[in-house]
């Protein structure tokens, strides 16, 4: 039994203090990485695929082939698929469109017609969607969080990149590769893994003098991973501030 003058010098006290510190640092890490990694309002647009309907063959030149749509000849017909997705944690509302202006997505080729529309979740939709020459027009409307829509269009002309004219206020607009999830979306997972690694090292912190070398090595790797994650986070945060 420890006296009043000895309790703060015992190994049990320092072990408990270390454990409490680990838990507090872990909670702070999860909170910071989650609050930064999950952007409140983010709209992404993706060129999923572009497929030419006519290609040259060894026996028939491309210029000798003709594609008609409702009697109209198409010089360079393609099927283009694009996706619009709200990847933020909040809904994008009609009043987020500045002065009621629409969002315009430039496809780069004349839009002949819409072939299909695939919303996700299936029972949702984006109202006020129309087409104007080479542009997809999205009138002010509600786009719920985690909602996405994939459009398949028949176009006439070459297209390889999308561009957006956005009136959205306080909404992060980003072009996204079809396989890209982005680093910021992985930050909560990185923070959680760092916390789990710290918790796994609790025995090391509870018994510093008798810890085996392999546990010391794990603690070092954990600390290095945490520092690298923090540096990467600060760099990303700085770049985002500079853009705004």
Strand share of the residues? 25-35%
Number of strands: 11
Helicity range of the residues?
25-40%
The largest β sheet comes out as: 5 strands, mixed
- Distance between termini? 60 Å
Helix-strand string: HEEEEEEEEEEEHHH
Q: Give the rounded overall mean pLDDT.
A: 75
Rg, alpha carbons: 27 Å
Q: Assign an overall shape.
A: extended
CATH architecture descriptor of the largest domain? Sandwich
The tally of helices reads: 4
CATH topology of the largest domain: Immunoglobulin-like
Structural class: alpha+beta
Pick out the low-confidence regions.
Answer: 179-185
Structure, explained:
By secondary structure, the protein is α+β, with helices and mostly antiparallel strands. It has 2 domains: 26-38 and 184-243, no CATH class; 42-170, Immunoglobulin-like (Sandwich). 32% of the residues lie in helices and 27% in strands. The protein has 4 helices and 11 strands, in the order H-E-E-E-E-E-E-E-E-E-E-E-H-H-H. It has helices at residues 11-37, 187-200, 202-206, 213-243; strands spanning 42-52, 67-69, 72-74, 77-86, 103-106, 110-120, 129-132, 135-138, 148-156, 163-165, 172-175. The protein has a 5-stranded mixed beta sheet, with no helix packed on it. A 4-stranded antiparallel beta sheet has the order 7-8-5-10, with no helix packed on it. Helix 1 (11-37) packs antiparallel against helix 2 (187-200) and helix 2 packs antiparallel against helix 4. The model is unreliable at 179-185 (pLDDT under 50).
């Amino acid at each position: 039994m420890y006296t009043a003058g000895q309790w703060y010098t015992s190994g049990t006290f320092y072990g408990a203090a270390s454990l409490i510190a680990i838990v507090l640092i872990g909670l702070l890490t999860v909170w910071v990485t989650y609050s930064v990694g999950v952007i409140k309002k983010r709209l992404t647009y993706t060129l999923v695929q572009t497929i030419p309907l006519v290609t040259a063959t060894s026996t028939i030149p491309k210029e000798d082939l003709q594609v008609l749509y409702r009697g109209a000849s198409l010089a360079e017909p393609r099927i283009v698929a694009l996706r619009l997705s709200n990847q933020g944690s909040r809904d994008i509302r009609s009043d987020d469109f500045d002065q009621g202006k629409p969002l315009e997505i430039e496809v780069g080729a004349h839009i002949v017609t819409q072939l299909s529309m695939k919303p996700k979740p299936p029972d949702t939709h984006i109202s006020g969607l129309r087409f104007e020459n080479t542009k997809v027009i999205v009138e002010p409307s509600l786009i719920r969080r985690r909602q996405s829509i994939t459009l398949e269009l028949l176009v006439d002309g070459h297209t390889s990149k999308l561009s957006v004219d956005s009136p959205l206020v306080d909404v992060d607009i980003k072009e996204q590769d079809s396989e890209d999830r982005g680093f910021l979306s992985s930050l909560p997972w990185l923070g959680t893994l760092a916390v789990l690694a710290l918790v796994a090292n609790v025995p090391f912190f509870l018994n510093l003098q008798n810890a085996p070398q392999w546990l010391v090595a794990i603690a070092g790797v954990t600390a290095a991973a945490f520092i690298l994650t923090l540096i990467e986070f600060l760099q990303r945060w700085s770049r985002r501030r500079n853009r705004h």
